[in-house]
Protein backbone atom coordinates (compact mmCIF):
# COMPACT_ATOMS: atom_id res chain seq x y z
CA UNK A 1 0.00 0.00 0.00
CA UNK A 2 2.85 2.36 0.85
CA UNK A 3 4.41 1.80 -2.60
CA UNK A 4 1.07 2.54 -4.27
CA UNK A 5 0.76 5.84 -2.35
CA UNK A 6 4.32 6.84 -3.31
CA UNK A 7 3.69 5.97 -6.96
CA UNK A 8 0.50 8.04 -7.06
CA UNK A 9 2.28 10.98 -5.38
CA UNK A 10 5.14 10.80 -7.91
CA UNK A 11 2.71 10.72 -10.85
CA UNK A 12 0.78 13.68 -9.45
CA UNK A 13 3.98 15.69 -9.05
CA UNK A 14 5.10 14.80 -12.59
CA UNK A 15 1.76 15.82 -14.09
CA UNK A 16 1.93 19.15 -12.24
CA UNK A 17 5.28 19.86 -13.91
CA UNK A 18 3.95 18.91 -17.34
CA UNK A 19 0.86 21.07 -16.86
CA UNK A 20 2.89 24.22 -16.08
CA UNK A 21 2.28 26.85 -18.78
CA UNK A 22 5.10 27.55 -21.22
CA UNK A 23 6.26 31.11 -21.76
CA UNK A 24 4.75 32.47 -24.97
CA UNK A 25 7.47 33.52 -27.36
CA UNK A 26 7.16 36.32 -29.88
CA UNK A 27 8.18 35.85 -33.47
CA UNK A 28 7.14 35.82 -37.05
CA UNK A 29 8.00 36.08 -40.70
CA UNK A 30 8.30 39.37 -42.52
CA UNK A 31 10.75 41.92 -43.84
CA UNK A 32 13.71 43.58 -42.18
CA UNK A 33 14.48 47.19 -42.96
CA UNK A 34 16.94 49.49 -41.18
CA UNK A 35 16.87 52.82 -39.38
CA UNK A 36 19.20 55.36 -37.79
CA UNK A 37 19.01 56.25 -34.08
CA UNK A 38 19.60 59.99 -34.64
CA UNK A 39 20.38 60.37 -30.92
CA UNK A 40 16.84 59.47 -29.86
CA UNK A 41 15.79 56.91 -27.27
CA UNK A 42 13.62 54.09 -28.53
CA UNK A 43 10.17 53.35 -27.13
CA UNK A 44 11.93 51.26 -24.45
CA UNK A 45 13.62 54.47 -23.21
CA UNK A 46 17.25 53.58 -23.95
CA UNK A 47 19.75 55.53 -26.06
CA UNK A 48 21.73 53.33 -28.45
CA UNK A 49 24.34 53.87 -31.13
CA UNK A 50 23.66 52.90 -34.74
CA UNK A 51 26.36 50.23 -34.51
CA UNK A 52 24.64 48.40 -31.64
CA UNK A 53 22.51 45.47 -32.87
CA UNK A 54 19.02 46.50 -31.79
CA UNK A 55 15.58 46.14 -33.34
CA UNK A 56 12.23 47.87 -33.42
CA UNK A 57 9.32 45.41 -33.39
CA UNK A 58 6.17 46.16 -35.41
CA UNK A 59 3.41 47.88 -33.40
CA UNK A 60 1.03 44.92 -33.60
CA UNK A 61 3.47 42.59 -31.81
CA UNK A 62 5.38 45.01 -29.58
CA UNK A 63 4.67 45.22 -25.86
CA UNK A 64 6.63 46.55 -22.86
CA UNK A 65 7.54 43.01 -21.81
CA UNK A 66 9.70 42.64 -24.92
CA UNK A 67 11.95 45.61 -24.07
CA UNK A 68 15.53 44.46 -23.53
CA UNK A 69 14.89 40.86 -24.62
CA UNK A 70 17.19 39.05 -26.99
CA UNK A 71 15.84 38.32 -30.43
CA UNK A 72 17.18 35.99 -33.10
CA UNK A 73 16.75 36.99 -36.71
CA UNK A 74 17.31 34.66 -39.63
CA UNK A 75 17.65 36.03 -43.14
CA UNK A 76 19.88 35.88 -46.17
CA UNK A 77 21.29 32.55 -44.95
CA UNK A 78 22.51 34.08 -41.66
CA UNK A 79 21.26 34.17 -38.07
CA UNK A 80 22.02 37.12 -35.78
CA UNK A 81 21.17 38.08 -32.21
CA UNK A 82 20.00 41.58 -31.30
CA UNK A 83 18.15 43.38 -28.49
CA UNK A 84 14.59 44.69 -28.66
CA UNK A 85 14.73 48.44 -27.99
CA UNK A 86 12.01 50.17 -29.99
CA UNK A 87 8.66 50.01 -31.80
CA UNK A 88 8.24 50.32 -35.55
CA UNK A 89 4.87 51.99 -36.23
CA UNK A 90 5.19 51.60 -40.03
CA UNK A 91 6.27 47.93 -40.07
CA UNK A 92 3.80 45.24 -41.12
CA UNK A 93 2.95 42.37 -38.76
CA UNK A 94 5.97 40.06 -38.53
CA UNK A 95 8.40 42.69 -39.81
CA UNK A 96 11.23 44.42 -37.94
CA UNK A 97 13.23 47.62 -38.31
CA UNK A 98 16.90 46.95 -37.50
CA UNK A 99 19.68 49.31 -36.47
CA UNK A 100 22.32 49.61 -39.15
CA UNK A 101 24.61 47.54 -36.90
CA UNK A 102 22.12 44.66 -36.99
CA UNK A 103 21.12 45.03 -40.66
CA UNK A 104 24.75 45.07 -41.79
CA UNK A 105 25.17 41.59 -40.28
CA UNK A 106 22.40 40.26 -42.55
CA UNK A 107 22.87 42.17 -45.77
CA UNK A 108 24.31 45.12 -47.62
CA UNK A 109 22.24 48.25 -46.97
CA UNK A 110 21.77 48.70 -50.71
CA UNK A 111 19.29 45.80 -50.52
CA UNK A 112 17.05 48.02 -48.36
CA UNK A 113 14.92 45.08 -47.26
CA UNK A 114 15.55 41.41 -46.43
CA UNK A 115 12.98 38.60 -45.91
CA UNK A 116 13.34 37.29 -42.34
CA UNK A 117 12.09 34.89 -39.71
CA UNK A 118 12.54 35.90 -36.07
CA UNK A 119 11.88 34.68 -32.54
CA UNK A 120 12.59 35.62 -28.91
UniProtKB/TrEMBL annotation:
The keyword Signal applies. It comes from Pseudozyma hubeiensis (strain SY62). Pfam families: DPBB_1 (PF03330). Residues 30-117 form the RlpA-like protein double-psi beta-barrel domain. The keyword Isomerase does not apply. This is Expansin. InterPro entries: Expansin_CellWall, RlpA-like_DPBB, RlpA-like_sf. Keywords: Signal. Residues 1-19 form the signal peptide. SUPFAM superfamilies: Barwin-like endoglucanases. Gene3D superfamilies: RlpA-like domain (2.40.40.10).
